[in-house]
Write a structure and sequence with these properties.
The chain is an alpha/beta fold and about 290 residues long. It has one domain: TIM Barrel (Alpha-Beta Barrel), CATH 3.20.20. It is built from eleven helices and ten strands. The protein has an eight-stranded parallel sheet with strand order 3-4-5-6-7-8-9-10. Strands 1-2 form a two-stranded antiparallel ribbon. Strand 8, helix 6 and strand 9 form a beta-alpha-beta unit. Helix 1 packs across helix 2 and helix 1 runs parallel beside helix 9. It starts with a strand and ends in a 13-residue tail after the last helix.
């Protein structure tokens, strides 16, 4: 199962992707991508700070022919974080390095990974300036065809409104944020949808160091009733709200499990899952609300 959503850039993004955070090294990346392509994944999510772009590029060089795939058959996302005292030229250099590492002439989606700046306090007013510079550089690369779609990650309502007010003629195609039954924001979702921005979830299953989300009693009860695993319930919950997912997985079993989502959660059970935010509100990743 790998449905697609048409972005405002005109390109289509698979609703299910493979997250590669903390997956690095030629052998591990090769094995993970091999399992993923075999299972039907056609979207790979990475980032400069994951330090695995080069490994992904090398693996795809071998794996695409193995599965009779062309470059245009897959969708690649990468991301960068702005750095203090670095301008638009630096952003362009990072993107060109990503292109070289991934061994591709274009990247399907490139995101500003974080609304803050590496080297600045989250409360520093120059975060606004660097966000603008980074977006301008990505717009240039988008117009040159190097980045077919551009977007943001960890942008909250205030960050998005700021960008939309002065976006250099290019609205973000995607906003990638932490999103699961313990933490989601309807105001952010409504803003994204009203502006034609696709919302994509990360940390859909919590984190590898916390089982709280996967072990939530409500999630477990619904999973048992539907004869599915708790991760499948969490991922399907997002898909039924038309939110994209990029669950991280290394093993073939988990990679296969995370794409086997061709079932329905009833409206009553969806309401139960929606209600978990009111009793939990737990965050499992960094907090962009603190960034000015």
């Amino acid at each position: 199962m790998n449905l697609k959503f048409k972005l405002n850039s005109g390109y289509s993004i698979p609703l299910i992707g493979l997250g590669t955070y903390q997956i690095r090294g030629n052998q591990l990346i090769y094995e993970s991508l091999n399992y993923a392509l075999k299972a039907g994944y056609r979207h790979i999510d990475t980032a400069v700070v994951y330090h695995n772009e080069e490994h992904i590029g090398r693996a795809l060089k071998t794996l695409l022919p193995k599965y009779n795939l062309q470059r245009e058959d897959i969708f690649i996302t990468s991301k960068l974080i702005s750095q203090v005292n670095k301008g638009e030229e630096f952003v362009e250099e990072l993107v060109h390095k990503s292109l070289a590492n991934l061994q591709t002439e274009y990247i399907d989606l490139y995101l500003i990974h974080w609304p803050g700046v590496s080297g600045l306090q989250v409360s520093h007013p120059e975060n606004v300036l660097y966000r603008k510079r980074t977006w301008n550089a990505l717009c240039k690369l988008h117009r040159e065809g190097k980045c077919r779609s551009i977007g943001v990650s960890n942008y909250m309502v205030n960050h998005l409104r700021e960008l939309l007010a002065d976006c250099n003629g290019v609205k973000p195609a995607v906003n990638q944020v932490e999103w699961h039954p313990h933490l989601y924001r309807l105001e952010l979702l409504e803003l994204c949808r009203s502006e034609g921005i696709f919302l994509q979830a990360y940390s859909s299953l919590g984190t590898s160091v916390s089982n709280d989300l996967r072990n939530d009693p409500v999630v477990a009860e619904i999973a048992a009733r539907l004869h599915r695993s708790p991760p499948q319930i969490l991922l399907r919950w997002a898909l039924q709200r038309n939110v994209g997912i990029i669950p991280k997985a290394r093993s073939q079993a988990h990679i296969d499990e995370n794409i086997a989502l061709d079932f329905e959660i009833s409206a009553e059970d969806m309401e139960l899952l929606d209600g978990l935010k009111d009793t939990s509100g737990a965050r499992y990743s960094w907090d962009p609300d603190t960034v000015v």
